[in-house]
Structures are given as C-alpha cells and as structure tokens.
C-alpha cells in the first residue's frame, strides 16, 4: 500500500529532525529515524518521500470565530464609510434583502479556496439567523456539505440583531415567528452551536435574559454555546458573568465560549479578579479577534485610546483556553484579510504584547491547538493514529512562522495533498552579495 514519508521536519513543540509516516490517510509513525526505518523495512516504488528540510510541519490552522455568510461582500451594497461596528451592522442589514443563495455560496466557496491554500482546515462560523427566510443559514449548510471533504465548517446560530430585540415582522410583515423561533429552526436544519449577542439587546436585563434562554436551549439539545459576548468598550457590559453562571447552573462546563469579550479590557482589576474565578469554575473558553478588536474598539476614545482586545495573557495565566479568530475578511466590518491565521496570531501577539518566548508559542497555539479545543475537534494534532492533516511552512520554527507569515509549501488532509505553494525566494543582483534571499536568519 502507498506510504508517504515526510522527513526532517521541525514540529511546533520544538522537536527537530522528525519524520512522519503516513499510511491510509493516518499518521502511522512520528519521530526521529522513522524514515530510515521505512527504508530498511520495505520502501518500494510506491513510497513517496518529501524532504521538509528542517522546516515547520504543523497541524492545520483553526479559525475559532468567523462570519462566512458575510465574507467577500466588501462594497455591497456600499462600503462601510466610517469603518465602525455599528455602520457595519447597518450595511449588513442593507445587504440582507438582496442576498441570494448562489452569491452566498460562491463567496463562501472562494473563501474556502483561500483557506485551504493557507492551511486553514477548520472554521467555526457564526451565521445570521435574523432573517425570516433563513437564507444565509440554508446557504451555509449547503456550503458545509460542499466543503466537507476538505474543511471542517462548524456553524453557530447567531441572532445578529438580538434574539429578544429583533422582530422578524420588521423584515417580513407576514412572518409569524419570533427571533427565537428562527434560531431554533436553524438548529433544526442542522446548525451545530447556539449563538447569542447579549450586549446588543435593548437593556442589560434583556441581555442577561437572552443568555439564560439560549444556554437553556443548548442544555436541552446537548449543544455547544458560543456567544458574541460584551463586544463593547463599556466596562459595565458584564454578560460574561451571566454566561459563566448559567454554564455552571446548567452543567455546561467546558462547552461554552465567550467571543470577543472586549469589555474585559476596560473593566477594573478588582472586578476582573472575581470574574476570573467564575470563568475557571465554568471552564469557559474565550476567543479574541485581534484584527477586528483593534480596529473597531476604542472608537469613542480620544487619547489615550484603548486597544479593546480582551485580557489574553491574563486569561491564559488562569488556565483558561483562549483562541484567536479572524472574524471578518472583506466584509462590512473589515476590508482586509486573506484567510491567514498567522496574520491573526501576529496581531494578537502585538496587541497583547505577548513577545515572551512563551507568549509567542501561546499565540501560535491560539490559532491551532487552543482553537481546536474550543471547536471540540476530535483527533486534532500530529499524533500516531490521528488523521494525516498537516501543513508544511516555509519557516524553521514557530517564531519564524510568526515573523514571516510564510508560504504554505504543502497542505495535507487525510494524507492527500490539497494545496501547494512555491517557496518565496527573491533573486538579487547586488555586488558581492548572494544571488537570492528567503528572509531566513541565520540564512
Ligand atoms: Zn463575530
């Protein structure tokens, strides 16, 4: 049977000169000298060899927070002129009546092409349920089916306009459903995770009520929870506290995630010291979205301007699982991006000042291992018996991968190569200097 051997790889945990043997789409062996063993025991014409040349072989990137239904809609029906969160929600509202199934699918598929090329093979995407037609939900479920051979797309039922605030009759006067009915319909259709947006409800009380209601729904159905929680600069936006308390009350520990949690940036330290204990008890995970948080938060500030990202290193120090998400790419909220989770990790590292050796590793884990934990992905990581899902990067360490956001030389899933890129090499014509550079140092 055909065997593939990737030789001389460096792993994210720092191990070097490691060989990975792939059989039947799974990792059959991993460690130094495994390639030599295959040679000695019976390599044949069918055996394929890839020399990693000491470069980084990682488990695939995982995006813990994305909006696939809005992606690549930049400029439709108009650009977000102020670049603010609220104008983004407004632009999305203007686009919604004109959305078509085909356009949503086309944009989603195009984004997934980028994702695969970048080694991003698992994405948790929130999908807007504030629409009597549930058009985006249907399109994303179809997309999930289409990309299943190459991307794990996990969908969150996300009531963008507030599960208590949104009245479906404002979109369609003949609609007899409530916003909660629509969210439940989305789950019935096959959406995986219960979402929410408590800080966007009319009052703090309504926000807390929505958290309670949605957590109960998740508990009844045995589903995971991932809410947009306190995406605000208001230190009094404390829905994460209710989310943690409801998690414990309903026995959902380890199954609930708070996305954004930006208000924690502005909370006072005394309150946060109490909150951390609640989060630990609930085994709540947190997802920060560095690119979006740094651009959308702090907009009412003059100077000093808050960064508006949640307290990433402090949460990690408490043993709380923190992942990073891309959140948006070329949509009403964010004009940039190319499905590169290393760009996300790099921004997170800068905003949170995680420049220590441990901090760099943690930022890389936030877009790989930690994000996989938050999605409850089974069999993630380079281990014997796991599916052969991996990415070979043109970098020799995690540090270099963060520094260079390098080419993904090879992207593999279930032992099959899905994407390849040529290494980045610039040719030089300089007196008494080398003829090429790959931006490595030492070269
Ligand atoms: Zn989001």
Produce a short descriptive summary.
The protein is of the alpha/beta class and 443 residues long. The chain has helices at residues 34-42, 85-95, 101-117, 135-147, 179-189, 204-221, 239-249, 263-266, 269-282, 290-296, 312-317, 341-351, 357-366, 369-374, 398-404; strands at 3-11, 18-23, 26-31, 48-51, 56-58, 61-66, 120-128, 152-158, 193-194, 225-229, 256-260, 285-288, 322-324, 390-393, 408-413, 416-420, 426-427, 436-437. The chain is globular.
Describe the protein's architecture and organization.
This protein is 35% helix and 20% strand. The protein contains 15 helices and 18 strands. A hairpin with an 8-residue loop joins strand 17 (426-427) and strand 18 (436-437). It is globular. Zinc ion (ZN) binds next to loops.
List descriptors.
443 residues; alpha/beta; eight-stranded mixed sheet; four-stranded parallel sheet; 15 helices; 18 strands; 20% strand; binds zinc ion
User: What percent of the residues sit in helical stretches (DSSP H or I)?
Assistant: 25-40%
The first-to-last residue Cα distance is 39 Å
Q: Which class of secondary structure composition applies to the elements?
A: alpha/beta
- Biggest sheet statistics: 8 strands, mixed
User: What characteristic shape results from the CA principal axes?
Assistant: globular
pLDDT < 50 stretches: none
Oligomer: single chain
Radius of gyration based on Cα positions: 23 Å
- Can you give the mean pLDDT? 97
Number of helices: 15
Q: What ligand species are in this complex?
A: zinc ion
Please report the total strand number as a whole number: 18
Residue share in β-strands: 15-25%
């Amino acid at each position: 049977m055909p065997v593939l051997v990737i030789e001389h790889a460096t792993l994210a945990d720092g191990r070097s000169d490691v060989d990975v043997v792939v059989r039947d789409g799974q990792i059959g062996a991993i460690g130094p000298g495994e390639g030599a063993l295959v040679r000695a025991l019976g390599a044949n014409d069918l055996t394929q060899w890839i020399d990693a040349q000491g470069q980084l072989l990682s488990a695939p990137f995982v995006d813990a927070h994305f909006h696939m239904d809005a992606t690549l809609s930049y400029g439709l029906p108009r650009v977000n002129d102020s670049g603010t969160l609220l104008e983004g929600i407004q632009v999305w509202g203007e686009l919604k009546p004109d959305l078509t199934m085909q356009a949503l699918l086309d944009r989603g598929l195009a984004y997934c092409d980028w994702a695969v090329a970048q080694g991003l093979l698992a994405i948790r995407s929130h999908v807007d349920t504030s629409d009597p037609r549930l058009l985006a939900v249907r399109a994303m479920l179809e997309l999930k089916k289409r990309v299943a051979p190459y991307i794990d797309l996990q969908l969150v039922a996300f009531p963008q306009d507030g599960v208590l605030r949104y009245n479906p009759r404002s979109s369609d006067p003949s609609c007899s459903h409530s916003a909660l009915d629509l969210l439940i319909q989305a789950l019935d259709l096959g959406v995986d995770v219960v979402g929410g947006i408590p800080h966007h409800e009319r009052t703090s009380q309504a926000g807390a009520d929505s958290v309670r209601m949605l957590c109960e729904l998740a508990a009844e159905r045995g589903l995971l929870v991932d809410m947009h929680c306190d995406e605000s600069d208001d230190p009094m936006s404390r829905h994460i506290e209710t989310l943690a308390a409801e998690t414990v009350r309903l026995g959902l520990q380890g199954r609930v995630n708070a996305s954004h949690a930006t208000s924690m940036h502005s909370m006072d330290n005394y309150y946060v010291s109490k909150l951390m204990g609640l989060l630990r008890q609930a085994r709540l995970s947190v997802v920060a979205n560095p690119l979006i948080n740094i651009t959308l938060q702090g907009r009412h500030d003059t100077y000093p301007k808050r960064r508006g990202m949640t307290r990433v290193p402090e949460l990690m120090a408490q043993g709380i699982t923190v992942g990073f998400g891309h959140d948006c790419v070329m949509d009403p909220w964010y004009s940039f991006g190319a499905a590169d989770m290393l760009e996300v990790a790099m921004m997170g590292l800068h905003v949170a000042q995680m420049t220590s050796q441990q901090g760099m590793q943690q930022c890389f884990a936030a877009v790989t291992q930690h994000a996989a934990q938050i999605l409850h992905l089974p069999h993630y990581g380079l281990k014997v018996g796991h599916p052969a899902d991996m990415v070979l990067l043109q970098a020799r360490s995690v540090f270099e991968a963060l520094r260079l956001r390098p080419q993904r030389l090879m992207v593999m899933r279930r032992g099959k190569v899905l994407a390849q890129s040529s290494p980045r090499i610039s040719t030089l014509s300089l007196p008494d200097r080398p003829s090429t550079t790959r931006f490595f140092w030492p070269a």
